[in-house]
Amino acid sequence: DVKVTQSSRYLVKRTGEKVFLECVQDMDHENMFWYRQDPGLGLRLIYFSYDVKMKEKGDIPEGYSVSREKKERFSLILESASTNQTSMYLCASMKGGSNQPQHFGDGTRLSIL
Amino acid sequence: AQSVTQLGSHVSVSEGALVLLRCNYSSSVPPYLFWYVQYPNQGLQLLLKYTTGATLVKGINGFEAEFKKSETSFHLTKPSAHMSDAAEYFCAVSNSNSGYALNFGKGTSLLVTP
Q1: Burial A25-42 (b: 16+ CB within 10 A, else e)
Q2: What is the pLDDT of residues A6-18, one digit of tens each?
Q3: Which residues on chain B are in Cβ contact (under 8 Å) with A4?
Q4: Which of A41, A58, A90 is opposite residue B44, by nearest beta carbon?
């Protein structure tokens, strides 16, 4: 089974802090994704990466950046955290093309105070 | 571009009753369709998927979905609801032109009552 591990289940940070969310997958998948999930809005794509050091903006990239230095690890960075970034963050990985399913981690519930 | 509409943000059924969760999609080319389930405080788990071939797709936990091109639908069903089915369900769509993007519906929360 594919295992996608997010480093923290719950995280509390302060406004203006730089925040790092880490995600690791163990199945050698080329593609990795970061979503945020908010009630009534479903899942919205922030960034994705289709190879090491490659990244593409999703639907809501503002205020976020990403890093993929190794194939198995994909990091989401909040450059200067704000209260409207309080949310559930989900990481996913996927092998191959768009007919393949994405595999999700358990999520990080981030609160910005 | 492709998109998904899930009709009903909340659905309530009695234990043992039929579960029907509705999903309609739009896609300019043949779609790839997915249903995911999310239990409280967990990530999303794949229930089933349709890419090509047989239009009736069986998934885990007794769920199935039927791809109906004429109706642009991919509704999720289960003959008999169990208390453990209470969760959030997401329909998602992609296609060969969408690259890696998976477009999700806003989700349907399923409540199962005794």
Answers
A1: beeebbbbbbbbbeeeeb
A2: 999 999 999 999 9
A3: 43
A4: A90
